[in-house]
Design a protein that fits this description.
The complex is a heterodimer of chains A (about 775) and B (about 425). Chain A is α+β, with helices and mostly antiparallel strands and about 775 residues long. Chain A has 22 helices and 28 strands. In chain A, the strands form eight sheets. In chain A, strands 11, 12, 13, 16, 19, 22 and 23 form a seven-stranded antiparallel sheet that branches. In chain A, strand 27 and strand 28 (about 710) form a beta hairpin. In chain A, helix 11 crosses helix 13 (about 535-555). The longest helix of chain A has 19 residues, at about 215-230. In chain B, a hairpin with a 2-residue loop joins strand 4 (about 165) and strand 5 (about 170). In chain B, helix 11 (about 265-280) packs parallel to helix 13 (about 320-345). The model of chain B is unreliable at about 1-35 (pLDDT under 50). The chains are: A alpha+beta (about 775), B alpha/beta (about 425). Chains A and B meet through strand 10, helix 2, strand 23, helix 5 and helix 6 of A and helix 1, strand 5, helix 7, helix 8 and helix 10 of B.
């Protein structure tokens, strides 16, 4: 019997009413080229003169010929944005201007010009102040006329370059972890314990959300010490630690420990290289009454390799060590108690309390950071500190240090040794200072903008964080140093390299996870009462499925829009069991061919279907809002201020979901937006709150798109969606993610004009990379 | 049951012996003046998401708390119930009710938009700016919440994930990992060194931070207005971390135990509550805000047999949903009461911590089911004697900001912190004299 939602949908009232669901009219903005002054924002050019400006003649028989004015715009940088930046435009007429010449500055873009009307002073100079309301290209028309007459000389068009500022932003938690991995070779992920980075505009890359606090800075201070020490001290080349919560098994957590009783404990370590490894089982036995000491059967990849008695107790846990010969790749290790006893009445029983399990190389070797950083011993070589500072500085600050910066760091190093620190410690503290510097913690754009090489490093860094969620590697630094990011081919070369690396998984981790609701799955309950098949393995599979779907499109030439109906599907046994599909004989995701009629593609992903459901029932409203924003590109505005939604009465039993939704739209203010959201969302009612398909011919799942076309389910909607629009939507989300801010009107326009629907994702990403690179 | 004390078993205990009795025998060597604690008690904000049902939260006309808040009865003599204040700031904000309710409940200024961090300084930070210098950390922010869905209309998640705001654009996002919070409080600043070497190291760390401040100045000159504001917050944080280093580490000899990693939710709540006690007891800070969950929390309280998205349950549509919501609100009242117990049972500088702390219990809104911002009912619970206990019903004509203005007055803080010279927020232009003892 299919489960039908029983709790009322009205429980989702958080977004009840939407004030203005219509898209606001775009600001009027001329995009066609006019006599391009190229005045502002063109590199360093702050002055310009229209080459062939014909100023024409005045009407009424009075002829006037004057040479076009020189235009100066300051500051000499792209005019930028957010209503807070402004520029001064000076018009300098080279010869005497006739008395009574009025200049009127007209803007039909999002731009304020003051004063609106003025006359050149006695030196032939006229000055306007220009303030942008919104980031974007700015066009200004200067109309010159004698007296108050409308007609006059040929208007002058000024156009400001659309390049906009990319805000300075802090590395987020994912980026910090990846960066210290690549900078030092550490396996620690210290940012896991930093305060969260709140999503703004849907992503945790948004500069607005990446604020700083004392708690975070303190965390960064400790983290820098931990990762430096982990990377530069001797360590086991491979050391995989499993705490009980990592282990895919039943059993019972006790605080940070794990009780092993009749259940088994399974690990799936992945080792990088073939060789000898030590498996350490750190645990103790608890025995009461006449029960025997607990015994364990240990299997490797399905074969029993030992049966051993558990030594030690909870006060003195014991390291049970096994030496294993392992090939590279994944293995399965299983611990199974063989003699569990639990006779509560006789107070007789035994169990095993597990603290942790470690799989590691037999011997320690020098830390991975030594070669990566070129770490040296300052007591052996006098040049060591300076060399290390330059080398490490380039990688930590993602650009070469200035001589001044290097000197300051050397001064710090000396002052630390003079203060009593041993040379090696002083060097480590200096590295730590570099990792506490704003130049490491933040990505900023404007350092030394006058130097093209520094710009090139900033651009490379931005691309690296976009594609990899991490710092550039040696090849990228080399590309930056030789300024190879220039032009279309330069950009393409760099992007091809970025896409070919394994690290491009950072884009799926950073972007796709947030886009597809994966990060919200963590909080979804796995209580078995209602959805017995929804386990942690299913959650993991749904997360991996969403990431891998995106990942698969990066590496192949499939058109972007086929994300909606790819020729393959990704599943594993846990997910198949949850969806009541036949098993696929694999714990890991498998790619299988798929065609029409099969569950496949982005709209059928469990991740977003579950993330935008409620605990016990689906949520047409939340799903509708997600679809509207991410697939149809129609974000949902908030309800009006001061909205009181009133107490809700009991809902009548037996009301259908559609009737419940209709009831809550009774208020016309609410209906304005909810009509749209609810009707899209209801088309996905065939997937329950955990994404399973409901087989019930009675179920009302007829959804409706804003254009009035109707559909049922993921496949139905995929067939109706405007594919170009969908690709445009994805490109918008990606660029918001990459820029760390919301898009300007002009940026949205630019993206709209790019025909991506039938092009591969890699091409779309290359076009976005051009936006991220900045400049020309 | 083989393991009687299994709930308390942690890795550290495990190493020492599973069931050792823990004695709390504080030896107090305070590094701070104790004279001020009665005039400037510690300040704790205890935030509750998704509103409160009036009938389970507010005392009746006789002052009797309903059974659902029965756990708080033992503090009745020290509780000031404010009934039906008006959060005007939230009502005038764009209609993302939970973002507006959570982000304005301590800041008192209407939001201009939802996608930016445009909240003003929150009342706990006004107090922290006044009394925070007396301890190692000016203030601390914690939450047992986990990032979940954020509010509608493109609301920035910080609007539901933070109640404390240092300034416009500067939400103080809570630490959600109790282990990290513990480490911040108690990790040694001397990195395992002792004696002279520890002293050298502390000085070195200050040099490192001085360098960091100095080094960013050239960056500062090359940034736009907004980026400079971001950098300013960074400078401020560096200076505060530096402050925490200049203070000799507190020799606070209290039995303490690092919380485990990845604790289940109820244990995380308990761990943070214990940390509140420890942080106050060891005088690491005087101001804490704690969010038991984030605004718009969709947590399913399975352990209470109250499965279902908490937010959805707050809009319950049937008896079953209402019953589950009731169980959640009862449990939250119990958690609050157990925090108060911890404070009451712990000696402070002179009396108990409870005597030296003002606890502001702050729901995100009034009734969650109707998103009511005009009938919000916070409580002030304190053994400090600064507040007059009892029931004060306002019937929604009185601004929540008047309560904040009253708190500011209670701490004897001079000045106007609100818009256009009002004491606090958009409209906190008077204090509620009847609340003050």
């Amino acid at each position: 019997m299919a489960r039908r939602p029983t709790l009322p949908v009205i429980a989702l009232l958080f977004s009840l009413s939407l004030f203005a669901c219509e898209e606001p009219p775009p600001p009027q903005l001329k995009l066609q080229a006019a006599g391009d002054y190229g005045a502002a924002g063109v590199g360093r050019t702050g002055r310009g003169r229209p080459p062939s400006q014909d100023l024409g003649s005045l009407s009424q028989g009075r002829s006037l010929e004057i040479e076009a004015p020189m235009v100066e715009v300051s500051p000499e940088r792209p005019l930028l944005a957010n209503g807070r930046d402004s520029a001064t435009v000076r018009l300098i007429f080279p010869e005497r201007v006739p008395a009574g010449l009025n200049i009127r500055a007209l803007s039909d873009g999002p731009l304020v010009v003051t004063p609106a009307l003025l006359q050149p002073d006695e030196n032939g100079v006229a000055i306007f102040q220009v303030t942008s309301e919104e980031a974007g290209r700015i066009e200004l028309t200067l109309i010159m006329a004698l007296d108050e007459r409308e007609e006059g000389l040929e208007p002058i068009m000024l156009r400001f370059d659309p390049q906009e500022r990319i805000p300075m932003r802090r590395l987020n938690r994912l980026e910090y972890n990846n960066t210290v991995r690549d900078l030092l070779g550490t396996r620690l992920r210290p940012a896991e314990s930093f305060p969260i980075d709140p999503q703004v505009a849907g992503f945790d890359t948004n500069a607005e959300g990446l604020t700083m606090s004392t708690a975070l800075l303190g965390g960064l201070f400790d983290a820098a010490r931990e990762v430096l020490s982990d990377a530069l001290n001797d360590a086991y080349p491979v050391e995989l630690s499993f705490v009980p919560q990592d282990v895919a098994a039943g059993g019972e957590p006790i605080g940070a420990l794990w009780a092993l009783r009749s259940n088994q404990l399974i690990l799936r370590p992945v080792v990088p290289d073939a060789g000898r490894y030590l498996l350490v089982f750190y645990a103790g036995g608890m025995v009461s009454g006449e029960a025997p000491r607990p015994e364990i059967e240990l299997s490797l990849n399905g074969e029993v390799i030992d049966t051993f008695r558990v030594q030690g107790d909870t006060k003195n846990p014991h390291e049970h060590i096994h030496e294993l010969e392992l090939g590279a790749g994944e293995h399965q290790i299983r611990y199974q108690p063989t003699n569990y006893v639990n006779l509560a009445a006789q107070n007789t029983g035994n169990e095993i309390i597990v603290d942790r399990i470690t799989l590691r190389s037999p011997e320690r070797s020098p830390g991975p950071g030594l070669t990566l950083t070129g770490f040296c011993d300052p007591e052996e070589s006098a040049e060591c500190p300076e060399r290390l500072i330059s080398l490490f500085g380039l990688r930590a600050w993602r650009r070469p240090l200035s001589a001044e910066e290097r000197d300051r760091l050397l001064t710090l190093y000396s002052s630390l040794t003079e203060g009593g620190e041993a040379p090696r410690e002083a060097l480590l503290l200096t590295m730590r200072a570099m990792m506490m510097s704003a130049k490491f913690i933040y990505q900023a754009d404007l350092e030394r903008p006058e130097d093209p090489i520094w710009r090139s490093f900033a651009a490379i860094s931005r691309l690296s964080y976009f594609f990899w969620s991490s710092m550039p590697d040696a090849q990228l630094f080399e590309a930056a140093a030789s300024n190879r990011l220039q032009g279309e081919s330069g950009l393409k070369g760099v992007v091809t390299y970025l896409l070919s690396s394994e690290k491009v998984r950072g884009l799926a981790r950073g972007f796709a996870e947030q886009w597809l609701g994966v990060r919200l799955l963590g909080g979804v309950s796995t209580a078995r009462e209602i959805f017995p098949t929804f386990t942690r393995e299913v959650k993991r599979a749904m997360s991996a499925q969403a990431r891998e779907l995106f990942q698969a499109f990066i590496g192949r030439g499939l058109p972007v829009s086929r994300l909606l109906d790819p020729p393959f599907r990704l599943t594993n046994d846990a997910l198949a069991a949850h969806y009541a599909e036949p098993p696929v004989n694999s714990d890991r995701l498998r790619e299988l061919p798929a065609n029409a009629g099969m569950r496949r593609g982005l709209l059928a992903l469990g991740s977003w279907l579950v993330a935008f459901s409620d605990a016990e029932h689906s949520s047409p409203i939340r799903r509708g809002a997600w679809l509207s924003e991410n697939i149809l590109c129609q974000p949902v505005p908030p309800p009006p201020p001061g909205l009181e939604i009133g107490e809700l009465g009991e809902l009548e039993e037996g009301m259908s979901v559609r009737e419940q939704l209709e009831a809550h739209r009774a208020d016309p203010v609410c209906a304005q937006c909810h009509q749209r959201l609810d009707m899209i969302g209801i088309g996905f009612e065939r997937y329950d709150a955990r994404g399973r398909a409901i087989e019930d011919p009675e179920l009302d799942t007829l959804g409706e798109l804003p254009d009035g076309s109707t559909f049922e389910g993921a496949e139905g909607m995929a067939a109706l969606v405007d594919r170009a629009r969908f690709a445009h939507c994805l490109s918008e989300r990606l660029l918001v993610y990459g820029l760390g801010r919301e898009l300007s009107y002009v940026e949205r326009k630019i993206l709209e004009e790019l025909p991506f629907g039938e092009r591969p994702l890699s091409e779309l990403l290359t076009a976005l990379a051009a936006q991220l690179r900045g400049g020309r | 049951m083989l393991l009687k004390c299994s709930q308390q078993l942690s890795r550290r205990r495990f190493l020492r012996g599973a069931c050792g009795a823990a004695l709390v025998l504080p030896t107090l060597e305070w590094s701070f003046a104790r004279a001020d604690i009665s005039r400037h008690p510690r300040f704790l904000v205890y935030y509750l998401p998704n509103g409160r049902r009036h009938e389970w939260w507010n005392p009746n006309a006789q002052g009797q708390l309903p059974d659902e808040s029965g756990a708080l009865r033992r503090f009745a003599e020290r509780t000031t119930h404010l009934i039906h204040l008006d959060n005007n700031a939230a009502r005038r904000s764009p209609g993302a009710a939970h973002a507006a309710g959570t982000s304005t409940c301590l800041t008192g200024r209407a939001l201009e938009g939802l996608s930016q961090n445009n909240c003003a300084t929150s009342v706990d930070q006004v107090i922290a700016n006044h009394i925070g210098a007396e301890s190692r950390f000016k203030s601390l922010q914690w939450s047992a919440g986990e990032p979940g869905p954020c509010d509608v209309g493109g609301s920035a998640c910080s609007l539901t994930q933070s109640v404390s705001w240092a300034d416009r654009g500067q939400p103080l996002l809570p630490t959600i990992n109790p282990r990290a919070a513990f480490d911040q409080l108690f990790s040694s600043q001397t990195e395992g060194l002792s004696g002279e070497r520890a002293k050298i190291r502390r000085r070195s760390l200050r040099s490192v931070l001085d360098f960091v401040l100095d080094d960013a100045r050239d960056l500062q000159q090359r940034l736009g207005v907004e980026d400079r504001a971001r950098l300013e917050r960074y400078f401020q944080s560096v200076r505060e971390v530096e402050q925490s280093l200049t203070v000799e580490p507190a020799t606070c000899d209290v039995e303490r135990e690092a919380p485990g990693e990845r604790l289940p939710y109820p244990e995380r709540v308990a761990a943070f509550q214990r940390l509140i006690q420890l942080a106050f007891q060891c005088d690491q800070t005087r101001v804490i805000s704690f969010m038991i969950e984030f605004g718009l929390s969709s947590r399913s309280h399975d352990f209470l047999n109250a499965a279902g998205n908490h937010h959805a349950l707050s809009h319950y549509g049937n008896e079953e949903g209402r019953e589950r919501l009731r169980r959640i609100e009862i449990w939250q009242a119990e958690q609050l009461a157990s925090t108060l117990d911890l404070l009451r049972d712990t000696p402070g500088l002179e009396g108990s911590l409870f005597d030296e702390t003002v606890v502001l219990v702050m729901p995100s809104m009034g009734q969650g089911s109707s998103h009511a911002h005009d009938r919000i009912s916070p409580k002030v619970i304190s053994g400090s004697g600064l507040f007059r206990p009892g029931r004060h019903e306002y019937g929604s004509a009185t601004s929540l900001n008047a309560l904040h203005a009253t708190l500011i007055a209670a701490y004897q803080i001079q000045g106007a912190f609100g818009r256009d010279g009002v004491i606090f927020g958009d409209d906190g232009d008077r204090t509620l004299g009847e609340l003050l003892a």
